[in-house]
Amino acid sequence: MIKLEQYRDTWLAEKMNDVIGFYPREFYPLDNFSSFKVEWNGYLYASLEEAYQAASFMGSDEELVEKIKNSHSADEAQRIAYSNRDKQRSDWNEVKLGIMEELLRLKIEQNPYVKKKLLQTEDYIIVEDSPKDSFWGWGPNRDGENQLGKLWMKLRDELKNE
Q: Is 5 a residue whose pLDDT tops 90?
């Protein structure tokens, strides 16, 4: 049996050496990779992740935007974007939080089930429990910025105050 570098579910890794779990958890709709379509700027993306990755090249490399639009999955869109970071729009670090917030709003507005799941989080802290991403998630040491979780909580508070 090969030893995988990292498990998303540490309990499963500790208890069952030969099992890899893949069943999505209850609040998977909040994940950018979840298959909830988002219409943005006149194009219907299969997931928020694809829209977000395409946005990173808008105005700087339209060929990559089209390549991402034609990708087959959120994972492929992310791989295309990551392998071409040098071609991202020059203001990407300044605008990416605002774009993510806009896309999350659209995801909620266009997908009632996502809104329902967000409101079911009540007043709990929402965390993107990525073991890799310390900006959008909490990273490998659980001390990351959790920007995605913060945006979800902001939008949840707005919905509750409507």
A: no
